[in-house]
């Protein structure tokens, strides 16, 4: 079974929840009209179904392979990447003047979800290239933009992010790679970078590495890091490829999942120094890298949604097909398809509710990014940017943690067959496991949520969102009072209100205790992130419920399913919120477990 | 790093929570005195550390391999199994008269946990053999016992359970394998069995298959199934091996994990019929198989505890070693070992609290099984058996589901290194994933908990346990009132009471709604199982807290760690209970998601 992109749900979320009509009214996004967007999504769905998705299993069974410094990617990947570039898919959100399509991030996010659902390993190459383009557009010189961006958008070249070193993972203060000025504006780089996704491959003519390194005499810590562009092949003034640069892939990793995606160890400068050029200003590298990272973090959240949906589709298909046991309510005397068993339904709806909630939240965030970028009003731009930046760690952290849970449930639905590799469900479980780790672990996202996104503004943005949730509760109460399936709306209102109150209490706890009791606050940071994901995802599902109710008659089957999924989210997912609150706010810094001596572990 | 069995915690649980002193006072268990048990556990720890644990990675990298009907096990496995048999480890809980050690199940459970922590794939062979021995001891004739049991205990032969067929997984009513009587008391079997653990291997001279099959004219469904013993090599009257029987391994599976354990497809009767003999009475096969299955289900719960502990040990060692980032409370200006970061602590304590809670609950259950077996008083035997049988699906379902969560956290603690196979953390994540599936999926355990264990007695046994929990709450309140760290005891009391009330409400819901609204009750069955695990595990941790407090001075470091772990369990795990209750009791059979048409998925 190939992957069928849920175009109908994507359009519903884009139009009804994430504000595509408003975004399409912003200057520069005039092309994003309903018919165009619909056509783009349908064509993306076709391309991913026919070209990309069939390579997913192939890549898992026949991974990228390293030999003498060269990496051969899985069969079919190179050809598919050529089609990807020629189809203009790399350029969806990038500027028209450099060959992109100039569409909103909102539309690009739906395309990104499809690509990742189709093939997580394949999708990583464009994902990193997107980050490279974004860094160049923000911090690159005009000459650098002209030199690199069109080739990155066309798919002739690809991009990478080089942060990690053996001793510097989450902690970039420990980066040691050196960049020595050559007096002609260029630098020579020396050092080892690890975990470089598509750091070497055979799918494009050149690879453009974006590398964190220290210049001589730079301050210690993150304030002494600069960003360099280091192409695999040097680029001549006319744009043609020159000499091979001194950056070499010395090995690739043997991984649990995403096996088709080569994870490279790159050695810089073993033969005299890898030639690179500074991007932007010296010592501002981390700032620029954060541009790439924020884009990449958001995209990784979308990867979570994509792989979760793929796992759901596979499990649902199996549950409709596999016949086993009679129904518990005695409505049949023969064994039935297992989708009729209540627990199988609970598992499938858990997968679906989490996926739809995370999709809605991530698209909602993308719509804010578009407003932050294109709104004519500066105050609106600033406000939308703050909201978007608050949501990024949640989209990334929650969207990826839940993808592991969903993929695990996908195996469980298959029973013993799920454990057999040939079935395919296990690949999602293996592939998804990297998502809560790379581009910043969930703990790093949670640190960001606590530190930069909550403590820095005293919880102001969080409270803006809480107030918006309270407004939806009022709508739900009004709808419940009007009769007709009132219990559904009242149940959602009750759980959403309890979730909002739990989140409000936690925000208060973070803001008030961040200074006096940082250990307690950071001990609860991942739980805070999870709570925020559940409540904000539940908010989007509540909004979906109200729209589905109002539009029910226009597409009864689709909206009945949306109502069912929203109701499930309320009673089965949102109901966890108060328990998470308790686990956070009851912790204090002198709790036994926070002060337990290291030897006790 | 090899595996270090937590002998001290095991002895604490055995002696202080699971009632080893009482069990050792029962007739037949006189040998289970403290010094003996301590010595057995220390020797088991040494054997598993030195001989079995080092083969775990080897088996994963060089799995069992099939060729022309024969299975070659991983390097070193055959030799280790010989030592296992010679050391008497297969015989720990089995009768002295057949060559066993006659020790209580309680002691055997600690040994089983060690073996599984050391090497899940290896441990499966003895696990299945234990089930075979138990079935023979219960339902085999004296001649069958004499023929098979001593060789199974000595490790000369091994045993298997043959239930599953391609169309009959969870639903054994669909079993089709035929057994035709030959007139001489023997039968010829014809059919295909799949997912047969150690169904073929090279570690023992003979393999004794226990096979579910139908005799001619047998009723449809589970009431027409009989149990047969079918040895790989026929056994002559003098016990020597005769001809090769007509059961052949046609392939083994390519699996996500436990790769060293061969999972066989067995073909019976392709060359004229596999010769077998009936065990016990015709048509009672499922009943006898349940004896094996109950033993195996309990043991699989122990597998969950074992692999969880192994994952914890590896993650804790890494967290002490890996230096990254400065502490959030500003107590150091340099990067520190990550175990000092609050979120890493939260992950490690989650792993540890779940593992210790599940260990305590499973050993507690084993102690009940010993009383059910050996108590001189029949009423006590019956009562303990009912309690044990109530706990089996919880030990299996909860203990295995949490092992997946713990193994996943183990990867997360390692960050990017966790995703690299060489690190080893990923193996636990892959291996553990089978545990909530085989020997009955979590849904099957939950059906058992709802149907046979709760509805059948109107919740009587559940209420007995709830009353025992309430007694511990009284002790906690008294301890809190006596001052000195009162907050810890009051927090545990509060969360335990809330958990007990949640569980009581769910039991009431199951009992009252099981008849009128079975779909709603079974929709919540897995959540009920999870809730029961959390509350009953929390109950054991509360008991541990009280003992640790009273004995604190005798071993300050050990008991301080136990108190910290118990406190963590209260605020971080037990606190989830009320949310789970809501997700169960608010579901009704006409909920949108229970009645959503199949096409909507």
From TrEMBL, chains A, B:
Gene3D superfamilies: Acyl-CoA dehydrogenase/oxidase, N-terminal domain (1.10.540.10), Butyryl-CoA Dehydrogenase, subunit A, domain 2 (2.40.110.10), Butyryl-CoA Dehydrogenase, subunit A, domain 3 (1.20.140.10)
GO molecular function: flavin adenine dinucleotide binding; oxidoreductase activity, acting on the CH-CH group of donors
Domain Acyl-CoA dehydrogenase/oxidase C-terminal: 284-449
Annotated ranges, domain Acyl-CoA oxidase/dehydrogenase middle: 161-267
Cofactor: FAD
Enzyme class, broadest EC rank: oxidoreductase
The reaction(s) this protein catalyses: 3-(methylsulfanyl)propanoyl-CoA + oxidized [electron-transfer flavoprotein] + H(+) = 3-(methylsulfanyl)acryloyl-CoA + reduced [electron-transfer flavoprotein]
Domain spans labelled Acetyl-CoA dehydrogenase-like C-terminal: 477-586
Domain of life: Bacteria
A Pfam family recorded for this sequence: Acyl-CoA_dh_C
EC number: 1.3.99.41
Domain annotation Acyl-CoA dehydrogenase/oxidase N-terminal: ranges: 67-156
Keywords: FAD, Flavoprotein, Oxidoreductase
Role description: Involved in the assimilation of dimethylsulphoniopropionate (DMSP), an important compound in the fixation of carbon in marine phytoplankton, by mediating the conversion of 3-(methylthio)propanoyl-CoA (MMPA-CoA) to 3-(methylthio)acryloyl-CoA (MTA-CoA).
Homology family: Belongs to the acyl-CoA dehydrogenase family.
Protein name according to UniProt: 3-methylmercaptopropionyl-CoA dehydrogenase
Source species of the chain: Pararobbsia alpina
Gene: dmdC_2
């Amino acid at each position: 079974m190939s992957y069928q992109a849920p175009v109908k749900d994507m359009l519903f979320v884009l139009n009804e929840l994430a504000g595509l009509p408003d975004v399409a009214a912003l200057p520069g996004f005039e092309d994003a009209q309903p018919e165009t967007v619909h056509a783009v999504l349908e064509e993306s769905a076709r391309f991913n179904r026919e070209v990309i998705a069939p390579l997913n299993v192939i890549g898992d069974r026949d991974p990228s392979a390293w030999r003498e410094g060269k990496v051969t990617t899985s069969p079919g990947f190179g050809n598919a990447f050529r089609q990807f570039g020629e189809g203009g898919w790399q350029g969806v959100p990038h500027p028209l003047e450099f060959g992109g399509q100039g569409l909103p991030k909102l539309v690009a996010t739906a395309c990104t979800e499809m690509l990742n659902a189709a093939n997580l390993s394949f999708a990583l190459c464009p994902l990193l290239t997107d980050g490279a383009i974004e860094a160049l557009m923000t911090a690159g010189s005009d000459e650098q933009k002209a030199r690199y961006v069109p080739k990155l958008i066309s798919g002739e070249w690809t991009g990478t992010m080089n942060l990690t070193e053996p001793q510097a993972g989450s902690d970039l203060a420990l980066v040691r790679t050196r960049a020595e000025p050559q007096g002609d504006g260029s630098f020579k780089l020396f050092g080892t970078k690890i975990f470089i996704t598509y750091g070497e491959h055979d799918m494009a003519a050149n690879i453009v590495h974006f590398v964190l390194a220290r210049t001589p005499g730079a301050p210690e810590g993150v304030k002494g890091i600069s960003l360099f562009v280091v192409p695999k092949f040097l680029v001549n003034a006319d744009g043609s490829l020159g000499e091979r640069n001194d950056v070499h892939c010395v090995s690739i990793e043997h991984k649990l999942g995403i096996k088709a995606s080569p994870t490279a160890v790159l050695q810089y400068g073993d033969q005299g120094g890898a030639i690179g050029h500074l991007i932007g200003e010296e010592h501002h590298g981390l700032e620029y890298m954060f541009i790439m990272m924020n884009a990449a973090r958001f995209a990784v959240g979308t990867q979570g949604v994509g792989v979760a949906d793929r796992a759901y589709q596979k499990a649902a298909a199996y549950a409709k097909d596999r016949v086993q046991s009679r129904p518990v309510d005695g409505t049949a005397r023969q064994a039935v398809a297992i989708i009729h068993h209540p627990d199988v339904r609970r598992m499938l709806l858990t997968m679906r509710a989490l996926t739809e909630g995370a999709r809605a939240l991530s698209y909602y965030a993308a719509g804010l990014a578009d407003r932050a970028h294109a709104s004519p009003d500066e105050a609106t731009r600033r406000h939308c940017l703050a909201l978007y930046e608050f949501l990024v760690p949640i989209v990334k952290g929650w969207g990826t943690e839940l993808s592991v849970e969903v993929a695990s449930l996908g195996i469980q639905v298959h029973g013993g067959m799920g454990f057999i590799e040939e079935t395919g469900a296990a690949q999602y479980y293996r592939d998804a496991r990297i998502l809560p780790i790379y581009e910043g672990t969930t703990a790093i996202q949670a640190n960001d949520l606590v530190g930069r996104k909550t403590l820095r503004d005293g919880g102001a943005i969080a409270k803006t969102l809480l107030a918006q949730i309270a407004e939806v509760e009022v709508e739900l109460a009004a709808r419940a009072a009007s009769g007709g399936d009132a219990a559904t709306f009242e149940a959602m209102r009750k759980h959403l209100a309890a979730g909002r109150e739990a989140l409000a209490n936690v925000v208060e706890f973070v803001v008030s205790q961040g200074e006096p009791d940082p250990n307690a606050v950071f001990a609860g940071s991942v739980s805070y992130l999870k709570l925020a994901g559940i409540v904000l995802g539940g908010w989007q599902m509540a909004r979906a419920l109200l729209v589905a109710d109002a539009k029910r008659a226009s597409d009864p089957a689709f909206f009945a399913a949306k109502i069912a999924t929203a109701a499930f989210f309320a009673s089965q997912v949102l109901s966890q919120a108060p328990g998470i609150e308790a686990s956070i706010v009851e912790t204090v810094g002198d709790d036994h477990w926070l002060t337990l001596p290291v030897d006790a572990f």
